[in-house]
Amino acid sequence: MELHARRSRAPGTGRPAAVLRGVGRHVPAAVITNDDLAARFDTSDEWIRSRTGIARRHVVAPGEATSDLAVAAGRRALRHAGLDAVDLVLLATTTPDRRCPATAPVVAARLGLAGVPAFDVSAVCSGFVYGLATAGGLIAAGTARSVLLIGADAFTTIVDPADRGASSVFGDGAGAVVLTAGEDGEPGALLALDLGSDGTLADLITVRAGGSAEPRPAADRPADAWFTMHGQAVYRHAVRRMTASSLAALERAGWDVADIDRFIGHQANRRILDTVGLELGLPPARVYANVGEVGNTAAASIPLALADAAADGTLRAGNRVLLSAFGGGATWGSAALTWPDLPPPDPPPVA
Amino acid sequence: MTAEQVHALVEEFVRELHPDVSSVPTSADLAELGVDSLSFVDLLSALERRSGVEIPDDLLPRLTTVRDLMDHIASRAHA
User: How far is CA A239 from CA A61, A123, A155, A253, A271, in A?
Assistant: First the structure.
């Protein structure tokens, strides 16, 4: 059940490495603050902050879809990379515009890239790391010389509006990176990956109905229409798996924990990030968090954090960066790379 | 790990979270002691590490008091 991706290019294989060339991000305009939530639910700003570290989240307006977020972030990443086009588009998402077909082709077409291969990657909150592995493999195999990888989710469209916990945690957004074929070991090259899954934990994070097993919610189970999450179990599995996966990726990269300049984990909640940092023995200042401003944006969270960290000066050329995620499936994954020398991206949003 | 050692560890954990807590009786409900749901998971991790006893996910909702933790761990710990 566990899969371990190898280095994107073993030294001397002659295969191209996937090199990060640009980042982009987008969040919808509408903001929900903790006070807004306190007006709807029995909760408070202090209660939400102390448990999640989240102050606000952006949410889609009616009719605004995942593709809208993805196109905006993808366009910015292309511009940041100085490219008009790529060979292939990948979209990591759990909230596609429609159940069928995938959303990536629509996104590619709206970016003026109709004709290129485009498909969705489904690994919930680990989707972006799985997408990095997919992009790295496609570039190493010569299938594509350049890939636009977008993580985008409109999770608030699958959360029960009456669910206080999930409404407090999730926000909508998109982040994107451009990867192109380059030299092994050059700054920005994917150095190491670790991926895994455990389907015995499928019930941990789920929307039960809407798939082939239960096409419509059973009459006596209306809640099956909505997203559900077992928070305590998710927290403990997330900490264990992100910690172990981080160590596995570090080992493959030939790095020690002390070598990590920036740890950019899936922004599920501040507590998970802090605890994983503690378990790894990382100084707190090296654990990056933007979850307070955007909430948990699922597959978008790591690329959104990368874009924000690049824009606010946290990420600098030469920084050794470790990414790690845990998500529904259960799935998890980590990736190591050295941050490349990029022009400053679009400024981060106004809080 | 004995029941008393579990109690001592829980007491230490609660005092670290809330230094003003005066006592941690075995009958106390963890939520009432100010141990929120994620801190409870942190406490379980600490107990698992120290005792070597694994606490399965499905048991979590049934462990609500200090006594529940003492009973579960002390009855399964080797030493």
Answer: 33, 18, 22, 21, 10
pLDDT tens for chain A, 351 residues long, are: 444 444 444 455 678 999 999 999 999 999 999 999 999 999 999 999 998 999 999 999 999 999 999 999 999 999 999 999 999 999 999 999 999 999 999 999 999 999 999 999 999 999 999 999 999 999 999 999 999 999 999 999 999 999 999 999 999 999 999 999 999 889 999 999 999 999 999 999 999 999 999 999 999 999 999 999 999 999 999 999 999 999 999 999 999 999 999 999 999 999 999 999 999 999 999 999 999 999 999 999 999 999 999 999 999 999 999 999 999 999 999 999 999 999 987 655 554
The minimum CA-CA distance between B36 and chain A, rounded to whole Å, is 8
Q: Which of A112, A182, A117 is nearest to A145 (CA)?
A: A182
Q: Do B57 and A233 touch (CB under 8 A)?
A: yes
Reported ipTM? 0.84
Element holding B8 (H helix, E strand): helix B3-17
User: What is the least distance, in Å, from the CA of B54 to any CA of chain A?
Assistant: 12
Q: Rounded to two decimals, what is the model's pTM? A: 0.92
Q: For residue B58, what is the nearest residue in chain A, using CA coordinates? A: A233
- β partners of residue A187: none
- Closest to A23 measured CA to CA, from A336, A351, A269, A300: A300
B-interface mutation test, from A43, A236, A242, A269, most B Cβ less than 10 A away? A236
Interface of B with A in 10-69 (CB under 8 A): 36-38, 40-42, 44-45, 57, 60
How many CB atoms are located within 10 Å of the residue A118 CB?
22
Residue with tokens 């008393």: B4
